[in-house]
Amino acid sequence: MPPKRSKPVDSSDPNSSGCRSANKRLRLDATVLSEKSKNSLLRSSAAPTEPQHKRDALEGDGVSSSFSDFLSGPGSPVESDFDKLQPLVVAALERLPNAQDHPDLRKIGRLKTSEDISKLLSAHGWWTPSLIEMFAESTVVTISLLSSTGSLNPSLLLEGFFRQGKFAHLSSLCITGTPLSHQDLAHLRLLPSLAILNLVSTSLSTIHLLHLVTHAANLRDLNISSNPLITDDARVPLSALTALTSLHLRGTSITIPCLRLLVYAIPSTCRFITLPQGCLYYLNTRSRRYCMDIPVGYVQDPREVPNMTLSSLKRNLELHKGANGDIAIGGTKAEAVERLMRVLCGRVADGKIARRVGRGEPNPDI
């Protein structure tokens, strides 16, 4: 008996098992393709259209030049804060009457850091409130408003610094030649790194200095020269500035009695870079106040005075009377102790002041 032949599969027959399997596979493939197409469309609609040279760079076509253009192009993820700041500054200056036609305006495009731009703005007095706000997130270290406050209310400039967590790197600020109010100084309280502050000729009084106590841990160099309303009471806020290394006091109303107390209160490394003229005159004429070179056998340390006899007290007072005829010798022991203590304590303090004048070099005037 001849073997049975298997019936050929008729693909046109929808009831055949082969046809059913093929149709099932086709439906699955269509579903997968449909899903892929859908996802591709979603991705293409979500992604922003990129210039052809960026797409070429990503696909490896002209990588060396096009990829560099891609990284430095507008909206690039690696665009620095300085790249954003530079055109904003130029645009602002182009609207500023005293800057828009200035030849130095072109220099800004060639500058490399925010510090360089700050120096240019400071040199020409181009700072405005809006420009100060632009630098709030920058790495600028030094700002000088010396030439910018002439035509502007300083309050408008300084209030831009009163921003929490901004100007993190600003360590040197110069504001001179314009009157400042209490509120103006208060605007500087939030500067976290302020170390050098120049406030020459700003009509400051002693009370203004209370705002500087917030910078006690950082403030190293303070210039309050040419502010005659600053008096001996300034010893209190100045004593709180525990990081001071340089203090400028020329043109204030601070006197020798204040300096004698202040020299013990401020850090031992702090120098009096300048002093009021009256204080300098006093230090230069100390030889008329008491005996400068005390010989052996006489007391130099004020702490020894209370234990001295009356005769020894008078002997030491006579030594100093030789330099200053106004020193009295007679009286009770208590009066003699008080007079000699005053002379010796003043002599020791004056010596400390004299050694701190200037930057550490010998001072020929003292």
From TrEMBL:
<dbReference type="InterPro" id="IPR032675">
    <property type="entry name" value="LRR_dom_sf"/>
</dbReference>
<feature type="region of interest" description="Disordered">
    <location>
        <begin position="1"/>
        <end position="79"/>
    </location>
</feature>
<protein>
    <submittedName>
        <fullName>Uncharacterized protein</fullName>
    </submittedName>
</protein>
